[in-house]
Amino acid sequence: MYLVFGTLTFRNSQLLLAELDSIKDCNKSILETGVSKLEGFCPAMFLRQNVPLNHKTVPRAPWEIAHIHDADGSLHMILSPGDAKMVVEKAWGERHPLSGRAGGVPITYTMIYAPRTEEEVKVQGRILRAAVWYGVEGREEIK
User: Fold this and answer.
1) Which of 33, 44, 55, 98 is deepest in the core (most CB within 10 A)?
2) Domains in the chain, CATH or no CATH each
3) Which stretches within 27-117 are classed as H helix?
4) Which range has highest mean pLDDT (34-43, 46-55, 103-112, 125-134)?
């Protein structure tokens, strides 16, 4: 349910974008940022195109790991089955309504709720790192 994490504040929005940039900067040999190919007009994180893909990820938008919705600060990302389960159990997010149902959308396509606090921004950073790790099938250490 979208109301669990509430409204994204401007400060948390800036912290979330800074977290995205920090993860990219610490892993610049495998990551880059840009505009989402799935949602358009919102910030996204991609594996560099020279990085071998985990083909369990979304084939419709190769290399896109996650994107942040400008409107509310929630994120969509592809997680490992275990991480997706934990996110739902801890009420940090929910399965995307099309996950496992629409062509090419994996069952672990997950919406992470917008952070209300700085601590929740840190949780999103940990979840995002887990999504990157899954995207490279654990072949890289994610900082």
Assistant:
1) 44
2) 10-135 (3.90.1150)
3) 81-89
4) 125-134
Distance (Å, whole) CA 46 – CA 64:
4
Q: Which residues contact 110 (CB under 8 A, 6 or more apart)?
A: 76, 77, 78, 79, 84, 87, 88, 93, 94, 95, 96, 99
Closest CA to 67 of 41, 94, 36: 36
Q: What's the rounded Cα separation, in Å, for the pair 45 and 118? A: 20
Which 3 state secondary structure label does DSSP give 68?
Answer: strand
The pLDDT of 117-133, averaged and rounded, is: 92
Could you tell me which residues come within 8 angstroms of residue 108 by beta carbon, excluding any fewer than 6 positions away?
A: 56, 78, 79, 80, 81, 83, 84, 95, 99
Rounded to 5°, angle at Cα 26 from 20 and 27: 90
Query: pLDDT digits over 24-64, tens only?
Result: 999 999 999 999 888 888 899 999 888 877 666 655 566 88
pLDDT of residue 8: 59
Three-class SS state of 111: strand
